[in-house]
Amino acid sequence: MPGQVQSIARAAAILRLLASSSGRLGIGEITRSLDVNELRSRSINWADPLAAHSGEAARIGTLMDGKVLVVHHVFRPDDTLGGPLP
User: Fold this and answer.
1) Helices 27-54 and 6-20: angle between axes, nearest 10 degrees
2) Residue 7 CB-half CA count within 13 A
3) Which of 40, 43, 49, 86 could form a disulfide with 71 if both were Cys (CB 3.0 to 4.6 A apart)?
4) Which residues are registered as beta bridge partners of 68?
């Protein structure tokens, strides 16, 4: 199959999330979890080349419950973490 059908990919993501959960999930929790996963999958296409080009670490995060949740982190090309989060 040349590409994914979006609704099938989304349904599979929901099933994976439910299967990995230890308890019941509300619709809000499912939505937040899937939105973070979508952010991560989309960010990989930008963060990885950015880190490689700049020689610096790259972090992608989202605000969740008043805190920053880092959903993707690319190490520096020299395998160090880079500086602390601001």
Assistant:
1) 110
2) 0
3) 40
4) 63
